[in-house]
């Protein structure tokens, strides 16, 4: 038998070795891509869980704030309604007194004055001190005096301000929840891209999908870092 290899056999050996080396390179790249896919999926799963939790917390915070605003607004309306009823009562008692005054009926005047509320009586006496019978510049009645106070009006105004503050906080919390939901959608896109990349027959396409998923993951991470944490 002749010793050594012919030129043809050497060529075959070189070609086979090159083909084997190429396969090794492809397998190594596939393993690296598989590892990258597994890492991406793990990170995305954690970030998606965190984003979903934060979105739920902020959504609850929004509902609570809006409920508080609605409750405060209802109380403010009730306080304003009570203030109107009190003013109507004061006006009715004053009209009774004024009718008795024009009729020069002192007994009816005393009876009407006896029905005055203590707070209204203060404004009434201040109005009488302006000599309304002879002073054309006197206020038209006790309810137009600075001494006339309606606690219900002040209470209603304070409750309205409380309702405005609670509504603004609830609306802001709702916007934050929406932003977390939007980030969760980005993360879901990453899951989809990485998921289909494992089934993609073309290596170049697989690499492109993984790279695109990594870019979306970075964008999602930046968005999360710019959002406030979930409320306690």
Fold and architecture overview:
Residues 1-7 and 9-23 have low confidence and may be disordered. By secondary structure, this protein is mainly alpha-helical. The N and C termini lie far apart (86 Å). The chain has five helices and no strands. The chain is 80% helix and 0% strand. The protein has helices spanning 7-102, 106-114, 118-128, 151-197, 203-225.
Give a short synopsis of this structure.
The protein is an all-alpha fold. It is built from five helices and no strands.
**C-alpha Rg, in Å?**
41 Å
Task: Please give the share of residues in helix.
Answer: over 70%
Q: Please trace the helix and strand order, writing H or E for each element.
A: HHHHH
Number of helices: 5
Output mean pLDDT. 83
Class of secondary structure makeup: mainly alpha
Q: In angstroms, what separates the terminal alpha carbons?
A: 86 Å
Q: Which percent band covers the strand fraction? A: under 5%
């Amino acid at each position: 038998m002749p010793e050594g290899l012919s030129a043809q056999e050497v060529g075959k050996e070189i070609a086979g070795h090159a083909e084997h080396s190429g396969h090794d390179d492809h397998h190594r790249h596939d393993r690296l891509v598989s590892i990258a896919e597994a890492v991406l999926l793990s990170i995305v799963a954690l970030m998606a869980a965190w984003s979903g939790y934060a979105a739920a917390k902020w959504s609850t915070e929004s509902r609570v704030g809006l409920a508080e605003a609605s409750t405060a607004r209802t109380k403010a309306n009730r306080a304003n309604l009570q203030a109107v009823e009190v003013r109507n009562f004061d006006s009715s008692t004053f009209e009774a007194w004024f009718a008795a005054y024009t009729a020069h009926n002192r007994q009816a005047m005393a009876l009407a004055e006896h029905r005055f509320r203590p707070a209204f009586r203060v404004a009434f006496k201040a109005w009488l001190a302006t000599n309304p019978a002879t002073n054309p510049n006197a206020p038209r009645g006790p309810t137009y005096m600075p001494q006339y106070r309606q606690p219900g009006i002040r209470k209603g105004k304070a409750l309205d301000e409380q309702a405005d503050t609670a509504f603004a906080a609830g609306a802001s919390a709702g916007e934050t929840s929406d932003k977390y939901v939007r980030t969760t959608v980005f993360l879901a896109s990453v899951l989809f891209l990485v998921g289909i990349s494992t089934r993609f027959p073309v290596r170049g396409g697989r690499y492109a999908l993984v790279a695109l998923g990594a870019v979306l993951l970075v964008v999602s991470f930046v968005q999360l870092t710019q959002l406030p944490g979930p409320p306690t």
